[in-house]
Amino acid sequence: MVGAQEQGLKLLVPRSGVSIYAIRVQMALAMKGLAYDYLPEDPRCKSDLLLASNPVHKTLPVLIHSGRPVCESLIIVEYLDDAFPGNGASILPADPYRRAVARFWAAYVDNKMFPSSIGILNTANQQERADKVEETLAAFGLLEAALAECSKEGEAEAPFFGGGSIGFLDIALGCYIPWFEAIGRLAGVPPFLDAARTPKLAAWAGRFSAAKPFIALLTAVDKVEEYITKVLYPKWNVAVTASN
């Protein structure tokens, strides 16, 4: 592994240590075998470096490569794959169609699936919560079918969205695994990654979570629960109870 100084890589991340999108980038860096300087930031007190690196959205994570910033986690993952083709395994599929499909589902996870699941904790009453749970379960059902299609290698099914090895969509979805479990626990609903309802996804999540080096990168579920209840939705359960 080439050192961070030689690669000129710096990663600006939220100090909380639970950022889905920072962990996603760290997974990509690990896959490519790249060393980097880890620079935690306080999102409430943005540094001059962050403001200069991401003046449009002023959000984290930001990758800085040889002084040039790259923003947005999925874009950073693609950039790392393109900028370091000789390092580690390829993250994106080589086939243009499979690349497009992986990008589509990655955007679906970010823009539909996760907002639906975390939205369960921002509902005003039991009916709204039930509707959100149903919406979320439907999204997981679609990903179950997508896994069956994306993982095909000839007539056989491979273990990951990327086929025989972890790829772009695996990383895009895998960084959410502790969050899905934490949200389910807090909402008091059956696990979203349920072996009876979505057996392929549940088995995939087990394989992904056990894969090196992702074991060390996935946030502990208890830590995610604490962050949700103390920072994101500290009064969500009180509000639901009061409105019933």
Automatic annotation (TrEMBL):
Main subcellular location: cytoplasm
Documented EC number(s): 2.5.1.18
Gene Ontology biological process terms in this record: glutathione metabolic process; toxin catabolic process
GST C-terminal domain segment(s): 95-231
Any coiled-coil regions, as ranges: none
Root EC class: transferase
MF annotations from Gene Ontology: glutathione transferase activity
Transmembrane intervals: none
CDD domains, alphabetized: GST_C_Tau, GST_N_Tau
Keyword vocabulary terms for this entry: Cytoplasm, Transferase
PROSITE patterns: GST_CTER (PS50405), GST_NTER (PS50404)
Intracellular or extracellular location(s): Cytoplasm, Cytosol
Catalysis: reaction(s): RX + glutathione = an S-substituted glutathione + a halide anion + H(+)
Cellular component aspect of the GO annotation: cytosol
Superkingdom of origin organism: Eukaryota
Domain spans labelled GST N-terminal: 9-88
Family statement: Belongs to the GST superfamily.
Function recorded in the entry: Is involved in the conjugation of reduced glutathione to a wide number of exogenous and endogenous hydrophobic electrophiles.
Protein name in the entry: Glutathione S-transferase
